[in-house]
Amino acid sequence: MGLTGLDIYKQLPKKNCGECGPPTCLAFAMALASGKAALESCPYVSDAAKENLGAASAPPIRLVKIGTAPNEVAIGDETVIFRHDKTFFHETGVAILVGSDLDDAALDAKIAKINDLKFERVGLKYTVNLVAIKQVGGGADEYAAFVKKVADKTSLALILMTDSADAMGKAAEAVAARKPLLYGATVENLDAMLALAKKHTVPLTIHGKDLDETAALAEKASAAGVKDVILDAGQRETAKVLVALTQCRRLAIKKKFRPLGFPTIAVTSEEDPLAEIVQASVYVAKYASIVVIKTDVKEQVLPLLTLRQNVYTDPQKPIQVEAKLNAVGAATTDSPVYVTTNFSLTYYTVEGEVSASKIPAWILSVGTDGTSVLTAWAAGKFTSESIAAAVKSSGVEEKVGHRNIIIPGYVAVLSGKLGELTGWKVLVGPREAAGIPAFAKQRFSA
């Protein structure tokens, strides 16, 4: 049973300095007991307390890192089952599977497609994170050579997938500097795989035939000194994988069951690409830390990455763009200036309609903590004062030769005071962004 907050408090320095975040040592102790704080946050904790409290106060799911900067993948370290309780912190890593039986031409084409799996949507950038290299036939030397070829062609983090300790050893040696994830530790080869993970200081996937066996293998790994473990519960049917992932998450967080307190990995089994993406989506939602898929087609991968972004977006923090002046088209000193908020959906809706008008313009996005026009106005964040401050700080006065500014029709009430504060002529635009093209053509087409 884990230590209580009072048990932990007794071993803290009791300075109540607040440097750890919470205002008092007791509050910090309670946060440690609930897995919502890390012992390292206290700068004054003694070595004896670190030794006594280290395991007891560790997050329920260990943080594990794969690869190297700038493409390092951090997974685990989650503290809640449902994101509305707090939020999820480390999004699921998506890995594309590559078989070692590909010839050079096929490998070049495959890696080129993987490297091109990059998207930008409403100001957010989506990408896959890893390449999973599976041994398909061939000997240890052939596999190691193939792994080296892949590593030379992509900067993404690597997963080495083979049950052969000999092949894993040679492949890991070939790309040791990339800090790959070793996938393939089973009952039969556990000792050899643990030795490789310790030698290269890299994370290791434990693969049991079921959850009980996986937990037992994870305990052996921890006892052997391998702490960076990722769990594969050994199932491949969607429903069974979902049950195993959910059990891992609940037992780790609710029961503090340390043998399952590690990130998890799920490998898809569906052959049809669309069915595979549906299967992978289930694993992203609950609760895989890494999902390995076969398809590399952009229009099939994008929905999965979009879902991941939705799941791992803080529900208490709206998606927002940078509050600044943006040019749409070849904006000049004569181009009109529109004002909106920095809520992503609002901004990109306005930008799309301004672009559709075919009249280059400037858009000034005002910082409103990512809230829409009416919400921000009602909350006192989109006001004459905030817009005037944005006008002054954005540099728009140097970008345009006129002094006309367009505000959304729903906040026409701001026009009078805004004009007084800025000295600009305030034009009231349409209420809805859809009205911008007609408004622009009527006012500025000449």
Report the count of strand segments: 17
Q: Proportion of β residues?
A: 15-25%
Provide mean pLDDT, rounded.
93
Shape assignment: globular
Give the class from helix and strand content and strand pairing.
Answer: alpha/beta
User: Can you tell me the number of structural domains?
Assistant: 3
CATH C-level category of the largest domain: Alpha Beta
What is the name of the CATH topology of the largest domain? TIM Barrel
Considering the protein shown, what is the CATH homologous superfamily of the largest domain?
Dihydropteroate synthase-like
Radius of gyration: 27 Å
Total number of helical segments? 17
**Considering DSSP H and I runs of 4 or more, what fraction of the residues is helical?**
25-40%
Distance between the termini: 76 Å
Please give the CATH architecture of the largest domain. Answer: Alpha-Beta Barrel
Strand order of the largest sheet: 10-9-8-7-6-3-12-11
| Low-confidence segments | none
The main β sheet shows up as: 8 strands, parallel
What's the arrangement of secondary structure elements?
Layout: H1 5-9, H2 25-33, H3 47-53, E1 64-66, E2 73-75, E3 93-99, H4 104-115, E4 118-121, E5 124-127, E6 130-134, H5 140-153, E7 157-161, H6 165-174, E8 181-185, H7 190-200, E9 204-207, H8 211-223, E10 229-232, H9 238-253, E11 265-267, H10 273-285, E12 290-293, H11 298-311, E13 325-328, E14 337-341, H12 344-356, E15 361-366, H13 373-378, H14 384-394, H15 396-399, E16 404-407, H16 415-422, E17 425-428, H17 436-444
Parallel strand pairs: 3-6, 3-12, 6-7, 7-8, 8-9, 9-10, 11-12, 14-15, 16-17
Antiparallel strand pairs: 1-2, 4-5, 13-15
Helix pairs in contact: 5-6, 6-7, 10-11, 14-16
